[in-house]
Design brief:
The chain has about 325 residues and is an all-alpha fold. It has 16 helices and 2 strands. A hairpin with a 2-residue loop joins strand 1 and strand 2. The two termini are about 30 Å apart.
């Protein structure tokens, strides 16, 4: 079993090298010496954890054609990651964020114009390669995902500063803007590798749960870590009128509404002071917002775990479970 696990790890890393090859191949451009070219060089040279392409490849292992279609799978994984990169660029522009994960953001370094051009360019290159390689079914799925991401972002914008925003509205928005690409990565890997509709559907649902957990954990960062540690403005979402799950959970109890509604109304009218934000954080914690968000993470982890339990016990499934365990660990 150990030898098989080692072999699978080697194959996975080899596949990720091919994914990186396709990322750079698809994003080839003639913008050297321009700010847009600098944006692309920056983004392509600072790859993150590559969670979504890894998920795509791991989910493909449940299908009978994973090996013979490995090149197409690596290409699809690259397209998913490039879509994610483009979305991060656009997020920075919308947020006017000076930092992204502790480093200066793209729009902060190169300006909004160059950032917009670079994000749009990446999306269009993905579309071009989908047609070029006749990945028509995958193109339809990924294009619908980009639509869902946009709908989620628009929904979030509509809900800004709304003191009556519901948990259901919040969940609908994050399923679009965050979870949909996780779900699609799992689904594309399964479909391309020849999984049955049942297995592909299960993996798609697993990806949705994983993406929701990912967003919940991100929501918790404001309440569990310092600005210096995370490299971002603490409680920027709250300042911007984006009320995340810990806040919404605290609002569900009478003492939470009594404490938070006045400051939320003030937030729509002016910039809150550091003392007011600190008090808001204390109220959210005191009224159970953080505790209940952690409980929700555990609940979705259990749902995702049930899906994994119903699938074949292969090395790739155990790697996916380790990813799930890391997200659940609070």
């Amino acid at each position: 079993m150990t030898e098989r696990n080692n072999a699978c790890t080697m194959m996975e890393e080899s596949a990720m090298e091919r994914v990186n090859y396709y990322i750079h191949k698809i994003a080839e451009n003639s913008f050297a010496g321009t700010r847009t070219g600098a944006v692309l060089d920056d983004v392509l040279g600072s790859s993150g954890k590559m969670i979504r392409p890894r998920l795509l490849l791991l989910c493909s292992a449940f299908g009978p054609y994973a090996l013979e279609r490995s090149e197409r799978l690596c290409m699809l994984a690259a397209m998913v990651e490039l879509t994610h990169m483009a979305s991060l660029i656009h997020d920075d522009i919308i947020d006017e964020a000076p930092f992204r994960r502790g480093k200066p953001s793209i729009q902060g370094k190169y300006g909004k114009d160059a950032a917009v051009y670079a994000g749009d360019f990446l999306i269009e290159r993905v579309h071009y390669w989908q047609v070029k390689e006749q990945l028509i079914d995958a193109a339809m799925i990924l294009s619908k995902t980009v639509e869902d991401m946009c709908i989620g972002e628009i929904g979030q914008a509509v809900c800004r500063y709304d003191v009556n925003v519901t948990v259901d509205a919040y969940l609908k928005n994050i399923k679009g803007k965050t979870s949909s690409l996780f779900s699609t990565a799992c689904e594309l890997g399964a479909i391309e590798a020849g999984c049955s509709k049942e297995i592909a559907g299960k993996l798609k649902c697993f990806g949705e749960y994983l993406g929701i957990m990912f967003q919940f954990r991100d929501d918790l960062l404001d309440f569990t870590s310092s600005e210096m540690a995370e490299g971002k403005k603490t409680h920027k979402d709250f300042h911007d009128g984006i009320y995340t799950l810990p806040v919404l959970m605290a609002l569900e109890v009478p003492e939470g509404r009594e404490a938070l509604l006045p400051i939320m109304r003030e937030n729509a009218e002016r910039n809150l002071s550091a003392d007011e934000i600190e008090q808001m954080e204390k109220d959210v914690i005191r009224c159970g917002g953080v505790k209940r968000t952690v409980e929700e993470i555990h609940r979705y982890a259990a749902l995702a775990g049930e899906i994994l339990d119903s699938l074949e016990d292969i090395p790739e499934a155990r790697k996916i479970r380790r990813m799930l365990d890391k997200l659940e660990a609070i």
